[in-house]
Amino acid sequence: MDFALSPELLQLQQMVRDYARNELLPHAARLDEQPRFPREALYGLAGLGLLGVTTPERYGGSGLGALAMVTALEEIAAADASVATIMAVTNGFPQSSLLDYGTEEQRQRWLPPLAKGEWIGAFCLSEPHAGSDAAALRTRADKVAGGYVLNGEKAWITSGRDADLYLVLARTDTDAGVRGLSCFIIERGSEGLIPGAAERKMGQLAAVTSTVTFSDCFVPEDQLIGEEGQGFVIAMSQLDAGRINIAAQSVGIARAAFEAALDYSSNREAFGRTIRDFQGVSFPLADMTVKLEAARLLTQRAAWLMDQGFRVTREAAMAKLYASEAAGFITDGAVQIHGGYGYSRDYPAERLYRDARVTRIYEGTSEIQRVVIGRQLARERGRE
C-alpha cells in the first residue's frame, strides 16, 4: 500500500503551490475586502493547465485524473478559497457533462475554450425554493420549432454574472418528476439570459454568486446535452467528482488555518513562554492535525478509486462530509488560538473561518451526505 504521490504529481503539487503562494495568497485578503471576479488569477491558472485538468488533451485539457485535480485544488484553496471554487466549478459539471453526454460536435465546439481557460463555465441547478430537491425544480424548457424556450430563475450560481457558458437543468415534462428534467448549454449574451445582482455572502466573496433568470430564452435544439429527460441522470452522475473536489478545497482551507494557528502559537508568548507550550493550545493543535491528515487521506483515496474506474458514491460523500466538517473544526480552532486577533480581519484566521463554512452546504449539505452514505450502506448490505 503506497500513500506517496507519484513524482509527476509531486512536481504538479510544487508548481501549483509556488504559483498559489506567490500570485494568489498576496491578493486574497484584498479580494475579500473588495470582492470582484478574479479574472487575472484565472488567466494564471489557465496558463498552468488548471482549468481543464481532467479534460483530454485532444479537447484542450491537461488529460490528468481526479487525484491530480484534488492535489492542485488543495494548493489553490490554501491560498484563496474563492479562486478554488471557481476552478472547481468550471472544471466540473460544464466540462464533465459534455465529455460524458455531449456529442462529438458539442465537445469540439465548447470544450476547448473551457479547458484552455478562454471561457469560464457555470452550473445552474439550484433555484430559490429548491436546492437538494431536484424534483422540485420549476425552470421550464418548452419545445418550439428549432429548439426550446426557457423560463425560470436559478439561484446561488457561482460565476453567474461572469461565466461565458452555462450548463442549465430545466423541466421539459411537468408531470414526470426528476425524469422530466433536461440539460442545456447556453452561451453568455443569449437573449433572455439575465444575470442578477451579486449575493451578499458570508465568505468566499470573490467567487461571486448570483441569480440567473431565463425570460423567453431561446435555446437551439443542438444545445440539448444528452436526451430529453436525461438531465437528472447527468447531474447526479457528476456529483461524485464534485464532492471530491469540495473535500479537497476543504482540506486546503483547513491546512491554511492550521498553519496560521501553528505559526501564531509558536511566536505568541504568555507567562514567559510560547502559548504552544501550554496544553490548552497544544492539544487543540494535535486534534487539528489529526483531522487534517484524515481528511486528506479520505479525499485522496476517493480520487484514486475514481481514477481506477470504481464507483465512488459512498467514498465521495464520506470525503466531502468529513473534510468539510474538519475544516469547520480546524478554522474554528485557529480563531480560538489567535484569541482576539482571530476575530480581526487583519489576520487570515477570520477569513478562513468564513470561507470554510459553506463547504458544509454546497454540493450537498452534511445532512445530505449522511443520507447518501446511509443509503449506500443499505444497498451494500442488501447485496451480501
Question: What is the strand and helix layout of this fold?
Answer:
Layout: H1 7-33, H2 39-47, H3 66-79, H4 81-91, H5 93-101, H6 104-115, E1 121-124, E2 140-144, E3 147-158, E4 165-171, E5 181-187, E6 193-198, E7 209-220, E8 224-225, H7 231-267, E9 269-270, E10 273-274, H8 279-307, H9 313-338, H10 348-357, H11 366-382
Parallel strand pairs: 1-4
Antiparallel strand pairs: 2-3, 3-7, 4-5, 5-8, 6-7, 9-10
Give helix % range: 40-55%
Task: Give the CATH class of the largest domain.
Answer: Mainly Alpha
Return the domain count: 3
The whole-angstrom Rg is 21 Å
Q: What's the average pLDDT?
A: 96
The termini sit apart by 26 Å
- Major sheet: arrangement of strands: 1-4-5-8
- Uncertain regions spanning at least 5 consecutive residues: none
| H/E element sequence | HHHHHHEEEEEEEEHEEHHHH
Q: Classify the secondary structure makeup into a structural class.
A: alpha+beta
- Using the 3D structure, state the CATH architecture of the largest domain: Up-down Bundle
Tell me the total number of β-strands: 10
Q: At the third CATH level, what is the topology name of the largest domain?
A: Butyryl-CoA Dehydrogenase, subunit A, domain 3
CATH homologous superfamily caption of the largest domain: Butyryl-CoA Dehydrogenase, subunit A, domain 3
Task: Report the sheet with the most strands, covering strand number, pairing sense and barrel closure.
Answer: 4 strands, mixed
Beta-strand share of residues: 15-25%
Please give the count of helices: 11
Shape: globular
